[in-house]
Design brief:
The chain has helices spanning 17-34, 51-57, 84-89, 100-105, 110-122, 135-139, 143-154, 189-207, 209-214, 225-232, 249-259; strands spanning 5-10, 40-45, 63-67, 94-97, 126-131, 167-170, 217-219, 239-242. It has 263 residues and is of the alpha/beta class. Strand 3, helix 3 (84-89) and strand 4 (94-97) form a beta-alpha-beta unit.
């Protein structure tokens, strides 16, 4: 089964609204000329405050819009949080769930992450469930155990018919350059693909072979234009979840172009 290449940019807590609008406009113009008609999909996930404005910029664009997080409740006394219906209503079609920075900085357990995945799906967004091991877990040889548990608990309550509406992102925390937990080295493409192959096998066990083959699994871990092609040519890596390199037009387009080269 041939799967598209999917390049997602996570802006995190960066870029003012005017800066974000300018970057979105530049990406829209580039994608209109170079992405339309190709098997490459492009997504940006700006701060919540930018969603409504950028939804207008990217209306009918090849560049899709996603949120960085959502709350699992529809409404309530949750000061500072934003619900899935709210971010969907602001224009998000995708939503990152369980990013390593949410897991670490906000101490989100798998049960909360699972509730957010279900909430995103109820609001007709595509959840991108992020999973990955810390440096300590890697050193202890627990990588596959951790990934298996994150998948089992994060995807609880999702049926075989629904799993096709979910995407995954593998982001080894120790390989993220901005993480306090990083080991000062990126994952090698071979190591990353090994983890992706394990993830795909677990999806096969949980949901079936066809569902596993159709699952899009992105890699996130200090991806740059210089190394993107090495990851994107691996059999089980279907795209990249890009952090810092997504904040500048030249570097993000460089990664998109790496995905757009025929294999």
């Amino acid at each position: 089964m041939s799967r598209p290449k999917f390049i997602a940019g996570n802006w995190k807590m960066n870029l003012s609204l005017s800066e974000g609008r300018k970057l979105a406009e530049e990406l829209h113009k580039y994608a209109h000329l170079h992405v339309a008609g190709t098997p490459v999909k492009v997504l940006i996930c700006p701060p919540h405050t930018h969603l409504t404005e950028l939804s207008h910029v990217l209306a009918e664009s090849e560049v899709k819009l996603g949120a960085q997080d959502c709350h699992y409740e529809t409404s309530g006394a949750f000061t500072g949080d934003v619900s899935a219906p709210m971010v969907a209503g602001a224009g998000a079609h995708y939503c990152l769930i369980g990013h390593s920075e949410r897991r670490q900085n906000h101490h989100e357990p798998n049960r909360i992450i699972n509730a957010k995945v279900l909430a995103a799906m109820r609001s007709t967004m595509t959840p991108i469930l992020c999973i990955g091991e810390t440096a300590e877990e890697k050193k202890s040889g627990k990588t596959l155990e951790v990934l298996g548990n994150q998948l089992k608990e994060g995807l609880a309550g999702i049926s075989r018919d629904q799993i096709g509406k979910v995407m995954l992102a593998y982001e080894p925390v120790w390989a993220i350059s901005t993480s306090k937990d990083n080991l000062g080295q990126p994952a090698t493409p071979t190591d990353a693909n090994h983890a992706h192959a394990f993830i795909r096998e677990k999806i096969k066990e949980m949901f079936g072979a066809d569902e596993a083959q159709g699952m899009l699994i992105l890699y996130g871990g200090s991806v740059k234009p210089e190394n993107a092609r090495l990851f994107l040519t691996q059999n089980d890596i279907d795209g990249c979840l890009v952090g810092g390199a997504s904040l500048k037009k030249e570097s993000f387009i460089g990664i998109i172009e790496a995905a757009n080269i025929p294999q």
